[in-house]
Amino acid sequence: MIKYIIKRLLIGCLTLFILATITFFGVKAMPGDPFTQDNKVLSPETYAALEAKYGLDKPVGEQYIIYLTNVLHGDFGESISKKGTQVSDIIIQRAPVTAKLGIVAFGLSVSIGLLFGIVSALSKKRWVNNLITAFATLGVSIPGFLFAMICMIIFAVKLGWLPVVGLDTPRHYILPSIAIALSSISMITRLTRSSLKDVMNKDYITLARSKGTKEVWVIVKHGLKNALLPVITYCGPMFAGLITGSMVIETLFSIPGIGKEFTNSITNRDYTLVMGLTIFFGAIVIVMNLVSDIVAALVDPRIKLGK
Amino acid sequence: MSEKEMMLNEEIELSDDMFELLDDSEKNSEFIAIESKTFFRDAWDRFKKNKLALFGLIFLVIMITAAILVPMFSPYTFEGQDMANRNALPSMDHLFGTDKLGRDILVRIMYGARISLAIGFASAFINLIIGIVYGGVAGYVGGKVDMIMMRIIDVIYAVPSLLYVVLILMVFGNSITSMMLAICLTSWIQMARQVRTQVMSLKEMEFSLAARVIGASDWRILMKHLIVNALGPIIVCLTMMVPSAIFTESFLSFVGIGLDPSIPSWGKLANDCRTVIFTYPIQILWPVGAICLTILSLNFVGDGIGEALEIKR
């Protein structure tokens, strides 16, 4: 187990290193530069001074080594578009906003997804099944940001029930978190339904029933416990989806989170910020994948890690 | 000569009364009453029974035809502005109305359809080629080569593909070609995995041994025997790639980091409506409807093909 975790962490570090390398050279190869943003013509002296300030006058290879050393020391450099702000400060400042939204969305996905999945796997009523299937199909097909816009029109503009921008009160969380969670809710619904349906036909369920176990316990202890596995392994990739979702939802709802910062940094061609955020996102997703694999192994002893 | 052989050699007298004439209808008992069907014909028949899949296919055909024809025959162009006629509601002149600069929305949507569908299908097709070659080689050669190729995939897969897409777009500019390139370079992994699994199980089958016995080259065995037999799952994987490519493109263009703003892709059209979302909410319906219905149809068709080819996923 520990050996497996160490191996995965090493692969994770390698992945991050490769990602950092690709990002670094990709950003270097980008056309345009961060200093000539506002159509101002910079004098050659100012330009050279600016380049020297950010270390851009050195050869690319040297810049790369300097950057990697700094990153290893937790220093992502200074943002170019926001003068004097450290990239790590931006991450520390913005990440909690996205994290809060992400946690709400995560909770929504798991709870609603499981609920719908269980109901449709166990319900004998046809219309319940059809309704949930329709929801799951639509949820996977409708991009979250379009769904968010439709919701904005209906609930915020026409009905005026919910606020449109910002993230100040609990009511502000409703629309953005549902919009981010929509596709993962549907995925979890699908996964839970198909795996629970499989499990409920197994012999040990019949055995549990014939022993006179209460139906609730049959479902929870024998059924769900065995059916949860695909859902847990899905949670890792789901984090990647939540981060991607946050980029567009934060832009749409003007939420000052890290996803919005990322899209802004791209339009501003803020090299250091793009690199820092890419590495940050990559690290989170890698860790989450690892966590979900480990949790899956802890829940289900049938899984042998590392084989 | 034994008694048994004598019996065999004995002449048997056959007379007419030992036989009985059959009814005429019995003559046809071996007749194949229905036309024999090929595998794909069979699959098509099953596909046709799936109403949702059929609906999806019809919608897509209509969409593609309209995307080709409407911009050709419409009196409006996608960038022709008509300042006197801004934010018009749907009418006979402008079936979908006009946007904030007086541009005809129908033409813009159909122009967007060309872009989005082209990106979807083209990148899925390039994916197919990369996936087949990479997955095929990994699965067929096996051993160390396979292990290294799979580790590479693991490393790429560990990072959200959107980060790569964004990077590629930043480096190569915001043109349609670089969008296709970006989507291809990040989404071939699923296809490669699928092909590898199929090839690994198929190469153990007798027909691939037979092909090797008669001296077929490795490449020929892989392409003519293994890949052809794995076509079902490959097609299903392919149909699922088109909607995800369309989704990625519209997502990025919507946020403003995708295609160049002058290209009216669906994501860009949806983004345009954001400024008028409170005043003219009807305008948002068209791009949203176009994206959702197209992705939905593609998913239905994909599911339908999967069911028709009897592939479990």
Task: Report the principal-axis shape of chain B.
Answer: elongated
Distance between the first and last residues' Cα of chain B: 68 Å
Poorly predicted spans of chain B: none
General shape of chain A: flat
The helix tally of chain B amounts to 12
| Topology of chain B as a string of helices (H) and strands (E) | HHHHHHHHHHHH
Number of strands of chain A: 0
Number of helices of chain A: 12
Which runs of chain A of at least 5 residues are low in confidence (pLDDT < 50)? none
CATH superfamily of the domain at 58-66 and 111-308 in chain B: MetI-like
Please tag this protein with its features:
heterodimer, A: 307 residues, mainly alpha, 12 helices, B: 313 residues
Question: TL;DR of this structure?
Answer:
The complex is a heterodimer of chains A (307) and B (313). Chain A has 307 residues and is mainly alpha-helical.
How would you characterize the overall build of this protein?
The complex is a heterodimer of chains A (307) and B (313). With 307 residues, chain A is an all-alpha fold. Chain A has a domain at 92-254: MetI-like (MetI-like fold, Orthogonal Bundle). Chain A contains 12 helices and no strands. In chain A, helix 6 packs across helix 7, helix 8 (203-210) packs antiparallel against helix 9 and helix 11 (258-267) runs antiparallel to helix 12. The longest helix of chain A is centred in the middle third of the chain and has 36 residues, at 87-122. The mean pLDDT of chain A is 81. Helix content of chain B is 68%, strand content 0%. In chain B, helix 3 (51-73) crosses helix 12 (282-308). Chain A binds chain B through residues 11-12, 14-15, 18-19, 22-23, 26-27, 29-31, 137-138, 140-143, 145-146, 149-150, 152-153, 157-158, 240, 243-244, 247-248, 251-252, 263, 266-267, 269, 274, 278, 281-282, 285-286, 289, and chain B through 154-155, 158-160, 162-164, 166-168, 170-171, 173, 243, 247, 250-251, 254-257, 270, 273-274, 277-278, 281, 284, 288, 291-292, 295-296, 299.
